[in-house]
Amino acid sequence: MHALIQRVSHARVDVAGQTVGQIGPGMLVLVCAEPADTEATADKLLAKLLKLRIFSDDAGKMNRSVQDLDGQGTPGGLLLVSQFTLAADLSGGNRPSFTKGAAPDLARQLFDALVAKARASHPQVETGRFATEMAVHLVNDGPVTIPMRVV
User: Fold this and answer.
1) Among candidates 25, 30, 9, 21, which has minimal Cα distance to 146?
2) Which of 1, 5, 34, 37 lies at a C-alpha separation of 20 to 30 Å from 105?
3) CB 98 within 8 A of CB 86
4) What are the catalytic residues?
5) What are the tens digits of pLDDT across the range 70-112?
6) What distance in Å separates the CA atoms of residue 127 and residue 12, rounded to the nearest whole number?
7) Which domains does the chain carry?
8) Measuring CA to CA, which residue among 55, 50, 54, 52 is closest to residue 118?
């Protein structure tokens, strides 16, 4: 699975002018499944996301995870958004190919599994809408943007 992680001060996803998911401080994570991915891959991605230390401690160093955003046990938000374009292949020219992405049924199954497990493990999880035109609004904090691939 591919993920693009952005540390945000706030973010939201709108569909047809309506907000469907929003968070304050935390992580906006764009997620893309590949054909070989399984629920075990989604589990690895979630474990990494929840432990990823990209939030500043009192000394200004990236030492805190989304689970302990302020050092006092306060969790940050997790906004998960399915984004098949992370599988874009530009090696054949200027028009991206998305053949490296998972088929829609598999991608939906894996995204839904990731969201369900995230909600069982973390108190503040929001999402966009799978296979829907979305407007993603964010204020990137830092800015901190980290690409990640989990196999």
Assistant:
1) 30
2) 5
3) no
4) 83-85
5) 889 999 999 999 999 999 999 999 999 999 999 999 999 999 9
6) 9
7) 2-149 (3.50.80.10)
8) 50
Would you call 147 helix, strand, or coil by DSSP?
strand
Tell me the sheet residues that pair with 125.
78
Query: Could you tell me how far CA 75 lies from the centroid of its own chain?
Result: 16
Helix axes 39-51 and 104-121, enclosed angle (nearest 10): 40
Q: Is the peptide bond before 104 cis (omega within 30 degrees of 0)?
A: no
Asked if residues 111 and 104 have their Cβ atoms less than 8 Å apart, the reply is no
Q: What is the CA radius of gyration of the chain?
A: 15
Check pLDDT > 90 for residue 4. yes
**Measured between alpha carbons, how far is residue 74 from residues 26, 34, 103, 147 in Å?**
11, 33, 37, 25
The SS3 call for residue 83 is coil
pTM score: 0.96
